[in-house]
Write a structure and sequence with these properties.
alpha+beta; five-stranded antiparallel beta sheet; 20 strands; 31% helix
C-alpha cells in the first residue's frame, strides 16, 4: 500500500515518467553500470525539474518508502537503487550554462562530467572533475573528486561554489555556509542537489596519455613513480598501477596529466617517466581535457560485474610495491585492475576544517577493482580483492575515500571524516533528522 500511495501522489504530475515494474522502461531505469547490482525499486520517478524532485521526495516521505537518487549510477555498490524504494531519477536534468567571463558553470543536478566539459571545452575552459566522463557530477563532487587537476585546482568539491538543494521536508533551499560545507565531502546525505555552480579554469590543452611497460619492469616503474612524483610540480598528476594488457596479463602503467600552460615543461617530466622502463605503449601527447578522460571510459562495461576495495596510504613505499605486485601476479580475471590515484598540491593545502573532506595531507588512494563477466562465480574475484586490501592494511591511513567504500564499511567511512565527523552529524540532525537520505550510512547516529 505504501507504494500505491506514492504512485497516487506522483502520477498526476509525472504521468508515464513514473515507472513501475509493469512499465516497459522500468528494466532500463533500474539498471546501473555494475551488472552485479540487481535491485527492484517500487518505482522510478524520472524528474524534469526541481519542482518534480520536491514532489518525489515528499511522496516517498509521506508513503514511508526508502529513497535513493540516481544521476550517473556509477557508484559500484549501487546505492542509487534501493529494493522496494522510490528512485529520484535526475537523468533528464542535464543542462549546463557556462559564464566565460566569470569562469563559472551552472549545471543541473543530473549532469555528467561529459556534459559540463562539452559546454566548457569550446570556450577553452575546464573543470576539476574525476577521470571518467560518464560519472554524475553531484555524486562525485559531494564526496570528493580525485582527478587530473587535483594538484593545480584541488578536488572537485573544492570548486563547488554554490548549490540548490531539495531537503527531506520537500523545501528548496540555496545552500548556506553550513550546508555547503557539508555538501563538500559529506556525500549525498543532506538532500537532492538539483543545481550546482562550479569554478572553471582556462585550459585549452593538457599533456596526457598512457604509458604501459612490460610486466617484468613493474617494480622499477612503481618505485620510480614514487621518486618522480615526490619532486613533481602541482601541474603534474600521475596515476599508476596495473591494467589488463592485450594478453590479459596485468600490465604496469603510468598515466600523466600535465595541466600547466607550458607543455614543453611537462614533456620533461614525461621523459623522466618514460625512462623508468621500456614502454610498450606510449600514447602521451597534447590533447583536449575531455580526450584525456576518455582514456578510462572504455574500461567500464555495463555487461560485467564489479567489486571494489580501496585503501588510503601516504606513499608508494617498498611494502606497497610488493603488495601491488603480488596482487597483479594473482589477477583473477583479464578485466580486473589496480589503480593508484595521487592527492597532492592545491588539494593538500586546503584547511582540513574548511570542508567536510578532512584528509588534506598528501596521500595515495588505491582502487582494487575486481571484475568478472556474467556467468563466472564471484568468489575468486572477491577473495582476490580482499587479499590485496589486507596486504595494504599495515601502512594504510584511517578511513577511506567515501565514494569507493562499500555498504559494510561504515566504520571506515566515519573514520574518513576525522575531526569533522561531529559537525557533520550535527548538521545531519538539523537538515535530515529522519535519515531520509543515506548514501553514506556512517552519518547516522
Amino acid at each position: 500500500m505504501r507504494a500505491e500511495t506514492a504512485a497516487d501522489l506522483l502520477r498526476p504530475y509525472l504521468g508515464k515518467r513514473l515507472l513501475t515494474p509493469r512499465d516497459d522502461d522500468y528494466p532500463a531505469a533500474r539498471r546501473v553500470w555494475n551488472a552485479d547490482v540487481d535491485r527492484r525499486p517500487a518505482m522510478v520517478a524520472v524528474c524534469a525539474d526541481a519542482t518534480e524532485v520536491a514532489r518525489a521526495v515528499g511522496a516517498a516521505r509521506d508513503a514511508g518508502l526508502p529513497l535513493s537518487v540516481r544521476v550517473g549510477g556509477h557508484d559500484w555498490a549501487g546505492r542509487a537503487i534501493r529494493d522496494g524504494g522510490l528512485v529520484v531519477d535526475l537523468t533528464r536534468m542535464r543542462g549546463v550554462r557556462v559564464d566565460p567571463a566569470a569562469r563559472e558553470a551552472t549545471v543541473q543536478g543530473g549532469a555528467l562530467t561529459a556534459d559540463l566539459l562539452a559546454a566548457a571545452t569550446p570556450r577553452g575552459l575546464a573543470a576539476a572533475t574525476g577521470v571518467v566522463s560518464s560519472v554524475g557530477l553531484a555524486g562525485l563532487t559531494s564526496a570528493g573528486g580525485y582527478g587530473a587537476l587535483i594538484g593545480s585546482a584541488g578536488l572537485a568539491l573544492d570548486n563547488l561554489l554554490g548549490a540548490e538543494v531539495i531537503l527531506a521536508d520537500g523545501s528548496t533551499v540555496t545552500a548556506g555556509p553550513d550546508l555547503l560545507w557539508a555538501l563538500r565531502g559529506g556525500g549525498g546525505n543532506f538532500g537532492v542537489v538539483t543545481r550546482m555552480r562550479f569554478r572553471l579554469y582556462e585550459l585549452p590543452l593538457i599533456l596526457a596519455g598512457m604509458l604501459m611497460f612490460p610486466p617484468a619492469e613493474a617494480a622499477a616503474v612503481l618505485s620510480g613513480y614514487a621518486e618522480v612524483v615526490a619532486d613533481a610540480p602541482d601541474e603534474l598528476t600521475v596515476m599508476t598501477g596495473f591494467l589488463p594488457g592485450p594478453d590479459g596479463r596485468a600490465t604496469p602503467f603510468l598515466c600523466p596529466f600535465y595541466c600547466g600552460t607550458d607543455l614543453s615543461a611537462g614533456e620533461r617530466w614525461v621523459t623522466r617517466l618514460r625512462s623508468l622502463g621500456h614502454p610498450v605503449v606510449d600514447q602521451v601527447g597534447p590533447m583536449p581535457y575531455p580526450s584525456a578522460l576518455a582514456m578510462f571510459d572504455g574500461n567500464v562495461s555495463d555487461r560485467n560485474h564489479y567489486l571494489l576495495r580501496s585503501r588510503w596510504f601516504r606513499t608508494v613505499d617498498p611494502a606497497v610495491v610488493r603488495a601491488l605486485m603480488a596482487g597483479a601476479e594473482a589477477l583473477p580475471s583479464p578485466y580486473s585492475a589496480l589503480i593508484v590515484n595521487r592527492f597532492h598540491g592545491a588539494a593538500a593545502r586546503v584547511d582540513p576544517a574548511a570542508t567536510a573532506f578532512a584528509l588534506r595531507t598528501p596521500h595515495q588512494v588505491a582502487e582494487i577493482i575486481a571484475v568478472w563477466p556474467p556467468g563466472q562465480k564471484a568468489d575468486r574475484c572477491a577473495g582476490w580483492a580482499d587479499t590485496v586490501a589486507a596486504a595494504l592494511d599495515e601502512g594504510a591511513l584511517p578511513g577511506g575515500y567515501p565514494n569507493l567504500l562499500g555498504p559494510a564499511e561504515d566504520e571506515r567511512a566515519r573514520d574518513s571524516y576525522g575531526p569533522n565527523l561531529g559537525r557533520l552529524l550535527t548538521l545531519k540532525r538539523r537538515y535530515d533528522p529522519d535519515n531520509v537520505f543515506s548514501a553514506v550510512p556512517a552519518l547516522v547516529d
